[in-house]
Amino acid sequence: MGSRAALRTKHQSPQATAAEAAGLRWLRVEGGPPIPFVHSSDGGVLVMDEIPHGSPNLQAAVTFGRRLATLHLAGAPAFGAPPPGGPREATIGMAPMVNEPAPSWPEWFASQRIQPYARQAGLDLDEVCSRITELAGPPEPPARLHGDLWSGNVLWGADGQVWLIDPAAHGGHRESDLAMLQLFGCPFLDHVLGAYQEVAPLADGWRTRVKLHQLFPLLVHAVLFGGGYRSEVLATARSVLQG
């Protein structure tokens, strides 16, 4: 008889569990990055496969870039759309996050991802929000996002693959996932981005928009931890406005 895969059990609120389980299931697309299988998500207990850790390597990074592009291209019904079966009131880390579908990314990003967290952090980002349409770049269709794609949620597996864990999945702009990946660092990042663009080239000027997309995760950190993150948000906003 073959050995059974080890399981990982995660305890959190029933709402956060429902959101994460729905996200993990939604992110499992053909040709996309591997995602841990969800065995159960009852109450506040999420049971999924445990992924053995390995080491970063170039080939895995290239494959990850291509697979991440495939995941994004799988699409979403709308910007802000939750995963099927996922709750409207979700979480990102320990912070609440509302998933409310909207037809336009710039207005949605300003009203649901910048303004609520700026208010909680006591920061004024009204100028960024008032100029969001000109700052946003060319229109794109909604992408299927991991939503919390910092390096801690990018797991280099012992099987030589890059797995995605702990999502805050929703429909959004694909540059948001890539901007978060750049914010907190990722091994072989240039190779990941290069391989990504082989499958799904980014719109002209995407590098100038990285800091705009980084405002959301920085605001979440400012709300949760305060301190230097508040000043980092303001410095990033100034950079966004200066172009």
Automatic annotation (TrEMBL):
InterPro entries: Fructo-/Ketosamine-3-kinase, Kinase-like_dom_sf. Keywords: Kinase, Transferase. The lineage of its organism: Bacteria, Bacillati, Actinomycetota, Actinomycetes, Pseudonocardiales. It comes from Lentzea atacamensis. Belongs to the fructosamine kinase family. This is Fructosamine-3-kinase.
